[in-house]
Design goal:
This protein is of the alpha/beta class. The protein has ten helices and eleven strands.
């Protein structure tokens, strides 16, 4: 039996007061306690950025790597130590700018790593430049007249790279964050959880419209496998299909019954509906939180181990000495 304190290091947490990263860290400690994995069997890997300080605040093994290279190091750790539970922590800049290529290939390979993306839509550590997830028109120190670029949407990258797990949560929603983290840890493969976080200094209020419990009730739908997609302050709204598109309806109006509401299937191999859910954005559609996609597929390190066993079983030589002894010999 473990408690959250068992996963906390003795280091002072050096994030700004009010930063959303504090809440995600606390949820991670609680999720790890509920999962009950020995801290000695956990490694936390990060790149560079505010969120990437997280390994210092964990009473586990950890490595604060170089900018954008967390996925590469985490892949090596997991492949060499398949029995270790590996968590990777990265920001929207560290992950999707300099680390973008590593990120999509980690998704494609399906290495068994639990990836947390801290998305505050800004470069916080370097003092307020726009990031790959900043909305078009966003005014920052590096875009004084508004950025002209269209942003990355993490879910699109994950599903486009044939990712097997994608979840989303917001920093102030502890229960949903813990639920997503536990599901990510139990998933065999590269599990990506996008954590919408607030940067109180350089991008304060970026997720305000779903920041409070009351706002989430109106503007977010929390997805759970096997349950209807219902939301609203009085749970009076739901999602249905209208042709190829998703549509919000009110239960009890125009003959709409609760049985008409779509039931979430996170395990569906076809990612079409998962992508539609993940890309919903206001004001007419709710933001999807919770586990959006969770499908089974052989993980990378499993495939590597199985391949080695298969080759060894078919080989005539089982040791290096046997191999050397089979080669042509000569005397000098």
């Amino acid at each position: 039996m473990y408690t959250a304190k068992d996963y906390k290091s003795d280091q002072l947490v050096r994030w700004c007061p009010g930063c959303g990263d504090h809440a995600v860290l606390n949820s991670l400690h609680k999720a790890m306690a509920e999962l009950g994995v020995n801290p000695d069997k956990i490694a936390v890997i990060s790149g560079i950025g505010c969120s990437s300080r997280l390994p210092h605040y964990m009473n586990t093994y950890g490595f604060n790597t170089i900018h954008g290279r967390g996925a590469a190091v985490a892949t090596g750790v997991k492949t060499a130590n398949p029995d270790i539970t590996v968590w990777q922590c990265s920001g929207d800049g560290d992950c999707m700018a300099i680390g973008g290529n590593h990120f999509i290939h980690a998704c494609r390979r399906n290495i068994d790593i639990n990836m947390l993306i801290f998305n505050n839509r800004i470069y916080g550590l370097t003092k307020g430049q726009y990031s790959p997830t900043s909305p078009k028109g966003f005014v920052s120190k590096s875009s004084p007249f508004g950025t002209v670029e269209r942003p990355f949407r993490p879910a699109e990258l994950v599903l486009g790279a044939r990712g097997t797990f994608f979840a989303r949560t917001v920093d102030m929603d502890g229960p949903t964050t813990i639920m997503c983290m536990k599901a990510a840890a139990q998933h065999k493969g590269y599990s990506v959880t996008e954590c919408l976080t607030n940067c109180v200094i350089f991008n304060n209020g970026t997720h305000n419209w779903i920041g409070t419990k009351e706002a989430r009730a109106e503007h977010a739908v929390i997805l759970e496998h096997g349950k209807p997609m219902i939301f609203g302050a009085n749970r009076e709204k739901g999602l249905v299909l209208d042709g190829w598109n998703l549509k919000v309806v009110t239960i009890g109006e125009n003959g709409v019954k609760e049985s008409d509401i779509l039931v979430h299937n996170a395990h569906c191999e076809d990612a079409t509906l998962h992508l539609k859910l993940a890309l919903m954005d206001g004001p007419d559609m709710p933001v999807a939180l919770g586990v959006i996609r969770d499908v089974e597929c052989e993980s990378y390190e499993e495939a590597v181990v199985n391949q080695i066993k298969d080759v060894q079983a078919k080989s005539k030589y089982h040791t290096f000495d046997e191999l050397v002894g089979s080669l042509e010999q000569w005397d000098m």
